[in-house]
UniProtKB/TrEMBL annotation:
<protein>
    <submittedName>
        <fullName>Uncharacterized protein</fullName>
    </submittedName>
</protein>
């Protein structure tokens, strides 16, 4: 087993979309999520945008709006890859979650390689929505 050192991360402020989505996702999953920096014994480090203390959930956020461009698709692909690697190398029992905006969800709701990769690699995809009263909620993205 790989030795892992863990430390907190202050990458996002308390009112950023990522922090708000992390709180909503944590509420949905029944855990408290915070950014974490994980360091392997060889000094390799990686930061995940959200992880609970027990390491049962790891999450990345892609909350961009506007037009879906290749750079945004690349971020989705990179975050999927990161989640799969972190789970495989560092926290093998973790639930990997990609939490996305409605803009990104529209792409992942189509039949395409990104949605197939998420499904086949066991990465759950949740979309951040408004509950109608101005509060964010996260819902699982239905499979295409």
């Amino acid at each position: 087993m790989t030795e892992v050192q863990e430390s907190g991360s202050d990458r996002f402020g308390p009112d950023t979309p990522e922090a708000v989505a992390s709180s909503a996702l944590g509420t949905r999953l029944g855990v408290s999520l915070h950014g974490r920096r994980l360091t392997l014994a060889d000094g390799t480090s990686v930061e995940v945008e959200a992880m609970d203390v027990a390491g049962s959930v790891i999450a990345q956020f892609v909350l961009n709006g506007g037009a879906m461009r290749s750079a945004l698709r690349n971020k989705v692909a990179a975050d999927l890859f990161k989640l799969v690697w972190v789970r495989q190398a560092l926290v093998p029992d973790a639930r990997a979650v990609l939490c996305v905006s409605p803009t990104v969800a529209a792409i992942l709701a189509r039949r395409g390689w990104l949605s197939a990769a998420a499904r086949d690699l066991g990465v759950a995809v949740f979309v951040v929505l408004d509950d109608g009263a101005g509060r964010p909620v996260v819902e699982p993205l239905p499979a295409p």
